[in-house]
Amino acid sequence: SAAEWIRTAFHDMASANAFQGTGGIDGSLLYELDNSEHAGAAFRNTLTRYAPYFSSRTSLADLIAAGVYSATRSCGGPAIPVRGGRKDATTSGPSGQVPDAANAIGIFRNQFTRMGFSGTDNAEMIQLVICGHTLGGVHAAEQPLIIDSGKFPNNYAHFDTTVASFDNRNAVEFYSGNTTNPMVFGKAY
Prior knowledge:
mainly alpha; two-stranded antiparallel ribbon; 7 helices; globular
């Protein structure tokens, strides 16, 4: 699904270190699938879906980048130019690089700064997080600390009311006080 493809790209690029010029969308996720920060079947499913298109001319990193473009466009998101030529990583990146909902704000700022975003600009960080959660939702099996099994249909809680649209409903519903986003309320919802 579109949400899985976007999540795959973010998790792959989260090990980016702008200061050292390492990481980014490099296909290292292939070697990191057993890390707890990459819980669930979505990453394996996405990489398996991309596998037939992998070749000596098309890197896994290029496929992941093209997947973000396709996923975003299929849900009404903006057209952003994508270029090929990325080189694939041959090993995993460092673990513990993906921002976690339980992190303190200082950790978030440090992680986003490391990735090349402005860690002092909360607006930029919030925009990326909201944008990244405009599609999809949370599976109880993958995030048992956020939602309980049996509470939502198919044990899956949506981020907003327009789960398949690349829009601002996630933010609008939060600011209007009527969000049901499990990442906001968790088990208190």
